[in-house]
Fold this sequence. Notes:
This protein has 7 helices and 7 strands. By secondary structure, it is an alpha+beta fold. The chain has helices at residues 51-56, 82-98, 179-193, 205-213, 246-251, 253-260, 267-270; strands at residues 75-79, 120-126, 132-141, 162-170, 198-203, 220-221, 234-239. 23% of the residues lie in helices and 16% in strands. Strands 1-2-3-4-5-7-6 form a 7-stranded mixed β-sheet, sandwiched between helices. Helix 3 links the parallel strand 4 (162-170) and strand 5 (198-203).
Amino acid sequence: MGPSDGNPVPPLGDDVVIDLRDGVTEHLLQQHQQEPTADDAIAVGTDLAHAEEVIDLRDARPPSGRPAELQPGHRMVTITGGDLWTQAEAFVYDIYRQVHYCDESPRHRVEELARWESNSRLHAVMDDADEVIGVVRTIFGPYDDLPVGQFERTDHTHPDPVCELSSLTVRTDVRSTGVIEHLYRAGWLDAFRAGSTTLVALIDDWLLDVFKGTYRLPFDIIGVGQEYMGSTPVPVAMPLQGPEYQVTADENPDFWAWTLEAVEPGEAARWQLPLLDAAHVGERS
């Protein structure tokens, strides 16, 4: 989470960060002063009045290419409890409260998600001052027992157990520095390694468009959107089956090569992940 002084994130003002969903999806971009790039499309939203404009900016849809490396002094950690868990929870809570996406809590955490703490892990990027600058949550279990299970489901082809990716929050000043992509990759790997069949999430339509159109990830809508913690997200799913990522490897090879760099020896073969000819990496990104 944030710093121990209780002010983990600088004041957001008009410029904000986005959450993958659990609630947070719409944050303000400085209105008409900055157009989001492919890097920060996943991290920055607009208010509802301008959400369509964000999608329009990506009509050409070039693939994302290779994400930026974490900055010097930044590191990825996985959190299962203790003081660091409290710190990371507070980081998410502070951002949620600033955009009014959760109720106030004397415990300085998002109480709407507290019931899933025992089957969750938090993945955080921290800086060299031991401050949290970005978080994502992985929640494991049967679909109906997760936050996504509160939404009407229309596609039942993904069997249990699944992993829900949620609470993706990043400090504004590190947007477009690769933090979002590193958090996503950590959650994706956690889901694969835990034996989940599918990665699920609650996201807004414009963000689904970015995942599919810019990153070329095999997400699909599997349920009906509804109002939830300040927005109207839809349930989506991405199979954790290697052959499903052939489209990513073919159309966004530099991003896929970067993804494979985090896979341990033997995992690519075990998961049947598509491999790349090194000669083709960089040609189409």
